[in-house]
Design brief:
This is Capsule polysaccharide export protein KpsE/RkpR. It comes from Sphingomonas kyeonggiensis. This protein has four helices and no strands. By secondary structure, it is mainly α. The protein has one domain (13-76). Helix 2 runs antiparallel to helix 3 (50-63).
C-alpha cells in the first residue's frame, strides 16, 4: 500500500526552480522527466510564462500518484 505524500503547495518556489532549470532533481519517472523538459522549452521559447509552467507541474503531481516517487528528489533538490 502506498503511503500518502504531501505535495508542496502550488505557490512553493521549488516548482518554479525546477521549471527554470535552477534545480535539477534526479527524476526517475519518464513522464515527469518529459513534462519538465517540455515546460523548460516552453518557458525558454516564451510560449508560456514561468508561473503557468510551475502550476502545470504542480497539477501533474496532484493528478498522477505514480509520479509521487519523484517528490522526495524534488523536495530535496
Amino acid at each position: 500500500m502506498e503511503r500518502e505524500v504531501d505535495i508542496p503547495p502550488a505557490n512553493n518556489i521549488l516548482w518554479s526552480r525546477i521549471v527554470a532549470g535552477t534545480s535539477n532533481p534526479d527524476i526517475s519517472t519518464l513522464a515527469t522527466r518529459l513534462l519538465i523538459t517540455r515546460l523548460r522549452i516552453s518557458v525558454s521559447n516564451q510560449e508560456t510564462n514561468l508561473l503557468n509552467a510551475a502550476l502545470e507541474l504542480h497539477r501533474f503531481f496532484v493528478k498522477n500518484k505514480f509520479a509521487h516517487r519523484d517528490l522526495s528528489a524534488i523536495m530535496g533538490a
